[in-house]
Amino acid sequence: MSLISDRISKNIKPSPTLMAQSKANELKAKGFPILSLASGEPDFDTPLHIRKAAEQAMNSGYTRYTPSGGLKETKEAIIRKFSRENKLEYTLNEVCLNSGAKQTVYNAMMATLNPDEEVIIISPFWVSYPEIVKLAGGKPVIVNMNPDKGFHLDENIIERAITDKTKWIIINSPNNPSGLIYSYEELKALASMLLKYPHVNIISDDIYEHLVYDNAEFHTIAAVEPKIKSRVLTINGLSKAYAMTGWRIGYCGGSAELIKAMSVIQSQSTSCPNSISQMAAIEALDGPQNHIKESNKEFAKRRNLTSQLINQIPGLKCNIPKGAFYLFVDCRDLFGKKTPNGKVLNSSVDIAEYFLEQVYVVVIAGSPFGAEGFIRVSYTTSEEQLTKSCAKIKEACELLFK
Ligand code: PLP
Fold first, then answer.
1. N or C terminus: which one in the chain shows less Cβ crowding within 10 Å?
2. What mean pLDDT, rounded, does the chain reach?
3. What's the pLDDT at 8?
């Protein structure tokens, strides 16, 4: 009998983004001059006022288990946030906190999926969605949006994927990996179509809500179409906009029935989110927000620089997305090219490997995001590092055209 379950050994892939990052760290530790464009987290420190709130929490005794769905005072801050920023009204039994938005998605799937029930995932998608669905015994149904139309939502294509077994559809805007922000009209059209299918629930993963540039507007589907609000689980978290990836705070608003079931999963797994982080979350949500504007200014500058440099590289092209901190770079023109070692590049994985081996730059292949022919470039690093990395990638691509 093998030690590792079939669930893991036959079905689930480890996170390719975390793997790429740890491979980069490993090579760096061995002395290779690695440049990484793989990170999925801001390179800024958590703002000081939030760190101070954590210190205060520790010193005032918030060092014990909390209720499994989270502290009442933190839930109240979340209710205020949803009301203030999203025009969504929830009550205490309609919100809960988790150890990161990843756990929010996980708990939701564990709490709702019966074997073989289906979850529609729009491609390109965050790599963890299909794996979490499989872990929970469900069936991911990938629905591809057209790369040549900028991956915008097409509700007609999505509608064709709905069956009697569809329990969820997951949407994510601003999107990881494409940086695309769904417009009000796109979300309205999707919601109008979903009104016809009352058995389908919707996860709106809004974790990149505040990472928007060029005065772009963020919308969340439960607010766009209040008639479907009771079927929507609106997910958010502190990791990205507040530079708090290590604090592990995610949260959500949804029906009381769902939130209760998710809290059962949590009570029998992690017990509760970190008590100190929960207290810091109140400060993050209620306290000054100007740091977001400042980091966004920096991200927008880096995005402009990186997209400009990438678009000068033979074989690569990208648009300038208005959200998140990624460029999703079209590398289809490199397919069929031969590397100096004689290897023919046939996939985004081949291309990511080539960049790593040839010029020590880490990018993430698009295929685990459901979009072959693309690579994800993250601009959460300094302009100097971005410039160096793009120069290295250019060097590698020029060799392919010789
Ligand atoms: N959702 C998306 C789309 C993400 O990209 C990530 C992290 O990369 C998460 C959720 C999870 O974030 P966390 O668990 O740190 O809150």
1. N
2. 95
3. 83
Distance 176 CA to ligand 1 centre (A): 9
Q: Is the CB of 207 under 6 A from ligand 1?
A: yes
- Mean pLDDT for 301-330 is 97
Burial 132-153 (b: 16+ CB within 10 A, else e): bbbbbebbbbebebebeeebeb
**Residue 148: phi, psi to the nearest 5?**
-80, -5
- Is the shortest distance between the CB of 126 and ligand 1 below 6 Å? yes
If one residue of 240, 251, 274 were mutated to test the ligand 1 pocket, choosing by the most ligand atoms within 8 A of its CB, it would be 240
Q: How far away, in angstroms, is 99 Cα from ligand 1 center?
A: 11
Domains of the chain: 6-45+291-397 (3.90.1150.10), 48-286 (3.40.640.10)
380: part of which helix (H) or strand (E)? none
- 344 φ/ψ angles, rounded to the nearest 5 degrees: -90, 130
Nearest in space to 362 (alpha carbons), one of 26, 21, 41, 42: 21
| Share in percent of the chain as helix, strand, coil (round to 5) | 45, 15, 40
User: Ligand 1 centroid to 170 CA: how many Å?
Assistant: 13
Q: pLDDT tens-digit profile of 235-281? A: 999 999 999 999 999 999 999 999 999 999 999 999 999 999 999 99
338 residue type, one letter: K
Q: 217: how many CB neighbours lie within 10 A of its CB?
A: 9
pLDDT of residue 369: 95
Q: Does 124 sit behind a cis peptide bond, omega within 30 degrees of 0 on the bond before it? A: yes
For residue 319, which of 177, 126, 178, 175 has the smallest C-alpha distance?
A: 178
Rg of the chain on CA atoms, in Å: 21
